[in-house]
Amino acid sequence: MSDVMGGGVGVTSGDDAWRRVTDMLWRGYDRYRGMLDVIEFGDVLLLLVYLRSRPAWDSLSDGGLDLERAILADLAAGQEDPAILRPLLDSVRKAREASLAPLNELVTRLSLDAELPLTRVFGALLAGINLTAGRKGGEFHTPEAITELAAVLLDPKPGDRLLDPCCKAGEFPAAILDRLTQSGDVNGRLTIAIADYTARSAALAYLNLRLRGVTPRVLPSPVKTLPAGAPDHRFDVVTANPPFNLTNWSNTDRVAGRWRYDVPPAHNANYAWLQYVVASLDQGGRAAVVMTHGAGQSENRQEQSIRASMIEDGVVSAIIALPAQLFTATDIPVTLWLLRLPSGERTDEVLFVDATDLGGVRHRGRRTLSGPDIHRIEDAYRQWREHGRHAEPGFAAAVSLEKIRASRYRLNPRAYVASSDVTPDSRTQARQVGELTQRLHQLAEQAASVDRTVDAYLEELSL
């Protein structure tokens, strides 16, 4: 398992310090094989990393408290309800059969300084656990490339009220907090509300945000709130990475929520989520929602009607097509929808960005966006919103409502962004060739592994 963390997943490329630390921590899993699975081990490790920054750590490290009592003491100090961490504490109780002293010792070695912030270690471990567990771990991780991009485009301000109603492990609000911290703003003034389908994800998000100095308000599960069509309060910023194409999201044939545009189909929650997010915004609020590529082109009549109404109402600001292979559990390409609830004059255009060719392969065929990639998308968006500059051939285009109507309200960035006649420079071509070569090697390794497996079976069968 150590190759997962040692490969730099979720860690800035070339940063040897983070790579060494996460590799060191992950090697501890070898001691607990057979007692804990990868998810349970991850729960324990993340709790330890969180506690490393808390006053209760001293009592844990000197043997005065065990891990569960140290966590409970930490929550009690802030008068927080321990029930939020119940799913993680179940893993801790299972780990009691084994000594956690070696893990405690490893985490004790982590220095509490700016060069190696625990927030980044926590994020790197989350990414590695998700990559190792795959689908078994649940799709609770939102790639760093997407969260950093959203944090830049939403331009959060101190004092904003933020909601993530499908928070996974809190990656979106964590990225926003990090952005405010890096800009010198005091993040303690930001109020955050979170919810998720699974109690474990909400618990991870809770830890992730408390590690950054903000205790979020945990709302009821979307199982209860999504069919209602809107939360009880409005927010300045909303982020969401909801499950794609979720079926059976409502237990009624006709959903009786407070739907602003139209009743969403019962067989697919995509447009329930989009309407829920819009209904969550206060005047002037903005949102970023991850959607499957097909959501913008659905031929379902109900979804077409909702999409048309959203566009005509001016709440769809931009659609960004992102590269495939960003997620660990799926290769499906996704889009990032930027939504706004206009407080004044509205723009009769939608910006489309085709970023599908950006990014590079980092580990196990997974792609990510570099800093320059994110800046390029941000620049295209800012130039359009703030200066009225409408296009970058082959990359971005501002499209009028008239043209979108003529296209039956389809929201496919690649269809709207004009093809570029510019030949890629030699550096871009070299990068593309390098990525294709790496992918070819990975496929060759997979093929060789399959061949070895087949040969072994044939040998067993004496064939």
TrEMBL record:
<dbReference type="InterPro" id="IPR003356">
    <property type="entry name" value="DNA_methylase_A-5"/>
</dbReference>
<dbReference type="InterPro" id="IPR052916">
    <property type="entry name" value="Type-I_RE_MTase_Subunit"/>
</dbReference>
<protein>
    <recommendedName>
        <fullName>DNA methylase adenine-specific domain-containing protein</fullName>
    </recommendedName>
</protein>
<feature type="domain" description="DNA methylase adenine-specific">
    <location>
        <begin position="121"/>
        <end position="422"/>
    </location>
</feature>
<dbReference type="InterPro" id="IPR029063">
    <property type="entry name" value="SAM-dependent_MTases_sf"/>
</dbReference>
<dbReference type="Pfam" id="PF02384">
    <property type="entry name" value="N6_Mtase"/>
</dbReference>
